[in-house]
Amino acid sequence: MSWLYDYRVFSYVISLGCEVAIFVQSTETLKVADQVPGVSMTYAKLALATSVITAIPLALILIRECIGRPVDVRTELLSLPILAALWLTAGGVALNARRATFGYQSCDDITLSALNTVCIYATPISTFSFIPAGIMLVYGMILLLVAGCGQRKQKPVWATAVRSPEMTQLVI
After folding, report:
1. Is residue 146 within 8 Å of 170, Cβ to Cβ?
2. What percent of the chain stands above pLDDT 70?
3. Nearest CA to 79 among 171, 143, 5, 4?
4. Separation between Cα atoms, residue 13 and residue 129, nearest integer Å
5. CA distance 18 to 70
């Protein structure tokens, strides 16, 4: 096995962990949405949708890997930037909503329970949204670099899996 495959599994597992955390935080935020009129919950809805949209392909990639039918490099290179863009958008919208609604004040200063809950979950939603985006972008750039080097060496790997012997020869 190569370090690229290990990094891939690590990055997907960390991303899925962040997605679960964001899913839970967004759900908790939306539970109190009707108690705080006038506060936009778009960021929580976007983060929730992004976590579901991202969990499906990442889980399918890992499941296919486990059953011996891995996804090829080009499929990963097509999906990773799209998912990373979704996460960057979700993180930016959450950060902007937090600043627009609460400014720079501490959430401890907010006395209304529902509004305090919204404030408390807004920052982690934005922070945990940037983590999978960064991980996916870094992995996508490394994968593109390795695949480009293989193409330059007349060993195209676009249609092979990351775990394949062709990729292992390139990254060792």
Report:
1. yes
2. 98
3. 143
4. 15
5. 23
**What's at 154, amino acid-wise?**
Q
Main-chain phi, psi angles of 82, to 5 degrees = -65, -45
* Cβ count near 116 (within 10 Å): 17
> Residue 40 — φ and ψ, nearest 5°?
-75, 130
* 95 strand-pairing partners: none
pTM of the predicted model as reported, rounded to 2 decimal places: 0.87
Give the SS3 label for residue 154: coil
Report pLDDT for 171.
67
Average pLDDT over residues 42-64: 92
**If you ran DSSP here, which 8-state letter would residue 107 be given?**
G
SS3 label, residue 161: strand
Give one DSSP letter per residue of 13-82, joined into a string. Answer: HHHHHHHHHHHHHHHHHHHTGGGSTT---HHHHHHHHHHHHHHHHHHHHHHHHHTT-PPBHHHHHHHHHH
14-31 pLDDT, tens digit each:
999 999 999 999 999 999
